[in-house]
């Protein structure tokens, strides 16, 4: 059926499959009789798929692909490899290029596993890991696991720098900044994405206005635009400081 649909001809399909044209024609007629619908519209020059035939072709291609991949998929399951792996990554550590390289490695090593990545903020990483059927988290807060069946492995420490735009009024101050001076300008913070766990409280002085943004990229852009002050991870800050942008 698939060969006839792809070649548009009983004779060409017969040549491809090393069968006689009569054999191919008979098998298609038998298939149509068994299904009770016409799969091809026959003309003197070619055969065209009917709507039912187009639907069957799409399904048949899926079946053939499934049959081809099934031995490898079954072997992977037999080896104890998960069929679905969900990974949550801390917003501060999320790098699209790094994730793409990780995916390239994972899909090459585990071709029959489906991977799902999620990007969360602060306690939202733990929240997703604990409650949303995720297997691995990269960049959880704290050093102790929040469940007995989990283990935490250190990746390193994040150093935070207090930054502002060079055009911000406070950047002209040469003396140590007091809380009273800092409180006059809004703090730019990222909203914790936790839904069930207690949200992490970001840096903000009592009485200080807060600007809440959805991700680290917006927070960096807000600091560059001079709309607020706050802390950023050192690896993000140093190149911008070297360029005179922070």
TrEMBL record:
<dbReference type="Pfam" id="PF00126">
    <property type="entry name" value="HTH_1"/>
</dbReference>
<dbReference type="GO" id="GO:0003700">
    <property type="term" value="F:DNA-binding transcription factor activity"/>
</dbReference>
<comment type="similarity">
    <text>Belongs to the LysR transcriptional regulatory family.</text>
</comment>
<keyword id="KW-0238">DNA-binding</keyword>
<dbReference type="InterPro" id="IPR036390">
    <property type="entry name" value="WH_DNA-bd_sf"/>
</dbReference>
<keyword id="KW-0804">Transcription</keyword>
<dbReference type="GO" id="GO:0003677">
    <property type="term" value="F:DNA binding"/>
</dbReference>
<protein>
    <submittedName>
        <fullName>Allantoin metabolism protein</fullName>
    </submittedName>
</protein>
<dbReference type="InterPro" id="IPR050176">
    <property type="entry name" value="LTTR"/>
</dbReference>
<dbReference type="InterPro" id="IPR005119">
    <property type="entry name" value="LysR_subst-bd"/>
</dbReference>
<feature type="domain" description="HTH lysR-type">
    <location>
        <begin position="1"/>
        <end position="50"/>
    </location>
</feature>
<keyword id="KW-0805">Transcription regulation</keyword>
<dbReference type="Pfam" id="PF03466">
    <property type="entry name" value="LysR_substrate"/>
</dbReference>
<dbReference type="InterPro" id="IPR036388">
    <property type="entry name" value="WH-like_DNA-bd_sf"/>
</dbReference>
<dbReference type="InterPro" id="IPR000847">
    <property type="entry name" value="LysR_HTH_N"/>
</dbReference>
């Amino acid at each position: 059926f698939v060969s006839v649909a792809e070649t548009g001809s009983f004779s060409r399909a017969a040549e491809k499959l090393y069968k006689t044209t009569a054999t191919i024609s008979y098998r298609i007629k038998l298939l149509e009789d068994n299904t009770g619908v016409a799969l091809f519209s026959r003309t003197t020059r070619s055969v065209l798929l009917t709507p039912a035939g187009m639907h069957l072709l799409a399904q048949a291609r899926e079946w053939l692909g499934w049959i081809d991949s099934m031995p490898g998929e079954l072997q992977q399951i037999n080896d104890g490899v998960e069929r679905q792996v969900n990974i949550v990554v801390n917003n501060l550590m999320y790098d699209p290029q790094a994730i793409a390289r990780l995916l390239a490695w994972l899909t090459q090593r585990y071709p029959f596993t489906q991977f799902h990545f999620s990007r969360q903020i602060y306690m939202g990483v733990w929240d997703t890991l604990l409650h949303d059927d995720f297997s691995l988290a990269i960049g959880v807060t704290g050093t102790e696991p929040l469940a007995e069946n989990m283990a935490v492995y250190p990746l390193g420490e994040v150093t935070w720098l207090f930054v502002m735009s060079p055009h911000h009024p406070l950047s002209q101050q040469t003396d140590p900044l007091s809380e009273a001076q800092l409180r006059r300008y809004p703090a730019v913070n990222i909203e914790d994405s936790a839904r069930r766990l207690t949200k992490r409280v970001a840096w903000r002085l009592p009485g200080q206005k807060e600007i809440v943004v959805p991700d680290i990229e917006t927070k960096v852009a807000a600091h560059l635009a001079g709309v607020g002050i706050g802390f950023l991870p050192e690896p993000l800050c140093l190149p911008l400081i070297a360029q005179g942008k922070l």
